[in-house]
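Our preliminary data section would be incomplete without showing what the modeling component actually yields. Below, a chain of 340 amino acids is followed by its predicted structure, encoded as tokens that our downstream tools consume directly.
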Amino acid sequence: MKTFDFYPEMENGKLDRELVGLAEEVCMKSASLPGGLSSAFLDSTKDFLQKVNAYHVMMLVDKDIPKTAIDNAFKGELSNNVKIQELQNFAKRHVQMQKEIETLSKHTSQFDGVRILKIAQTILGTHNHIDEELYPSFRLNEDLPASQKLVSVFSAFYYLKNIVEMQGVLLLHVMDQMLFSTTPGYGYWRLSRAIFRNASEYDMLFVEFDSPSAENRRKFVNAALRYSLAEVNYMSENLRIDSLVSRVERYLNPSFVNPSNRIDLPKYTAPILGRLLIVGKMPRSEVPFIIGKKQRTASAAIKALIDKDCLFSKTPKGEIRLKINFELGNFLFPNSVCAA
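Predicted structure:
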């Protein structure tokens, strides 16, 4: 198995100040994304973004796949349509794979395409032969600042895509591991959405850059950093607590734009969701005090939100947590799902 070191220098040995400057801005803003938000709410946000990621991959197979297919898959409500059902099962495995990659990134600074392929085989249940010579591992200089590591990560991306010719989902999983390991705040924004949102330009980069060179690599890294910065700015704007609260209020407003798919919610649900945006989770016993009503009314509001798939609880009397399904998620994070 080959191992490569990637450094953010050009061939003349000098740092590329423009690339490092862009990377510094990405790293600084990415690290500040969690802000003062609760870990429980941030975990719900990560879960939602993993499903968005899976949905974008599903759209590569069928651009007309309904958004409800993802939420239904995780509720165990599989479609009678065989093609959609296959995609639902794939989406569930894809989310599991994302979680495995994040866990892997916490335990190693070695970026190993073969290891990721083997994890994928375990989750997907395939047993194809893996030619380890085709999938080199990577290591980064641990002494580099985060910004230079990020430039190195996208240099590795260019190498994998254009020279090793690693494709599709595997390439994104390898890049996710690299970004989780090197970029604080990654997971609250995702490279896959950045690429999907810029799909035409992204594809053109590799049409234009079919002759590998240091300058073509630089152009690609510049584009990847610009995509990443746009994603970080998008999430930074949408993770502001005032924005989140106002969007929840709009989501629960009776004049909701598309009422055909919504479940009518009791009057006192807004304060519950508003509180959970701040604390992420809470005991059921707090709800009567939050809404200023008796336990029976509080229980009815909780049940309605669970039925709406906006809350979940491990036990019938356990604490409640915010759950961001696709409908709520698209209010909290507008246009989070890109058009095909």
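The longest strand covers residues 3-5. DSSP finds 15 helices and six strands in the chain. Preliminary results of this kind motivate Aim 1 of the renewal.
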